[in-house]
Amino acid sequence: MINIPAAVDVAALKDTTLLNMGIFGLFVAVTMVIVLRASRNNKTAADYYAAGRSFTGSQNGTAIAGDYLSAASFLGITGAIAINGYDGFMYSIGFLVAWLVALLLVAELLRNTGKFTMADVLSFRLKQRPVRIAAAISTLAVCFFYLLAQMAGAGALISLLLGISDWGGQALVIIVVGALMIMYVLIGGMKGTTWVQIIKAILLIAGAAVMTLWVLAIYGFNLSSLLGAAVDTANNPAVLNPGLQYGKTEASKLDFMSLGLALVLGTAALPHVLMRFYTVPTAKEARKSVVWSIWLIGLFYLFTLVLGYGAAALVGADTIKAAPGGVNSAAPLLAFYLGGPLLLGFISAVAFATILAVVAGLTITAAASFAHDIYASVISKGKADADTEVKVARRTVVVIGILAILGGILANGQNVAFLVALAFAVAASANLPTIIYSLFWRRFTTQGAIWSMYGGLGSAILLIVFSPVVSGSATSMIQGANFAIFPLSNPGIVSIPLAFFLGWLGTVLDKQREDTVKQAEMEVRSLTGVGAEKAAEH
Amino acid sequence: MGNDARTPDVAASADFKEVQATEQFKELRKRHRSFVFPMAIAFLLWYFAYIILAAYAVDFMSTKVWGNINIGIIMGLLQFVTTFAITSWYVSYSNKRLDPIAAGIRHGIEGHEFDRTGAGATGSATGGAAK
User: Fold this and answer.
1) Tell me, what CATH number does A282's domain have?
2) What confidence score (pLDDT) does residue A13 get?
3) Which of B70, B84, B105 sits opposite A298 (nearest CB)?
4) Which single residue of A45, A434, A446, B42 has CA 20 to 30 Å from A33?
């Protein structure tokens, strides 16, 4: 371990494909069995969406960590630090600090007022139909962006394992992987995916811990020498300083702010994370889940600092960029460097399970939102029975899955953490103002909610479409075109304040007053948990 | 909205406006907000201060303190420390200052202390002692 070879031989990866895939396949098979077993008693809608509210706080907290530590956290952040140095570390910090918003302002209050979906809470004291539709649409949009990132990550990972570097081959990989993931969700439901989340969270954190200790051991457990080695390999002392990626121009500095804002405000508005609060029986368990997940997630993000700089020092940014999967391949390549094909197989399997589990959680959320909020409440006006609702949910899974696969193919090659940050920006713009206002502002009205949700969602998506993400730069989704009139790649700094402003404006201009009895009910329920606390007994 | 996930709804007959107007509930709301709002503002300010420094005070953040470890990395790690600290603080505050009072109000509602007077519309058969 003392003599450090110059670089990882990416070509050597191909020779070990069989072994990688063997370990990998075994893992997938095991999780499939678990999903099948867990799904045997998926009877009611509460079972399918909220796992019968049967999980304890610590189980659920681990599952939340599993949901949250997606390919973005593992592949994306490691890659971002390995290539852009300190600026990549920003993701770790933003993703973690964001949990305080969820813990302090949202989690318990939401658990106490809702049932299955975010729309349940948002429409609690406002007009049902318009708010529910808006909340469901924004849920679908956020899930789509998040899913697209996961699909791109899955494509990068499998391409690396199989040594596929051409675009068509990678696209095929994304299609196959996406189809496999959709199957999981169709079979497993929420309970199945919760178990996959729990197992995967443990394996991911354990795997990252082993790699972290390994990297630190190489440098005598001295963070300073690890950082020094990263500087040496990169031949650039700036990898330790902020600004390598975002410090170039005034616009890119603003982009960095925008990213920071989206990261910290996005988490508490992510529908699939919010939905996790409903899988526990009480608000106290919801709080316990969040605390658990904060510790687990925080620990993991500390690892990413070491893994990222470890990959920068031991694998090198140039090798990472040239490998199939590009920037997202830093973590698997580091695993290959440290432990050969065995560790690579294990880490890849864990990363794949990570993506799988997150995709499952996301598609379930999207499906629940469509079936429960749009189909059951709006289209069939509450007449649909639970069976039909679950059937509609399953069909939604297929549709949203196909859309995500297509998006994933287009986004292939972009950093997964960056793509997820877009989902955060959309969530923070479309959902957070309405969540906060309806929990804390008595006067808030339906018009405020509608303006804020559509305004936030619309502006965020429009700005992304006209940003360098979609066109006009080397890594854009649409090559050869340039309609990027918005200079920032993350829309948060514009769309989030705009959504808060619209929520306020819509409310003060609204001549109608909302039902004060409902407001009182929501406030009392959210703070005391009355009604919700007994949910475990039915 | 239908509450089929938590049937039977123990609070179906409660007068929430009455509960909302009680001193006990006002105290709970005050305790909750007087903790979460200042805390949220504090950590957001600290986080944004950190980001602004990282974007616009690169030289300061790049100052080496110990070996290759610079102020930027130390401040980043401090963000972790404050997050963990606020989390623990909130949990102990909730357990001591919020949960007992919330449980008291909840038991009051469940015990039909706040039922709507003369409300025959919903669930009046199990009305109990209307206040």
Assistant:
1) 1.20.1730.10
2) 64
3) B84
4) A45
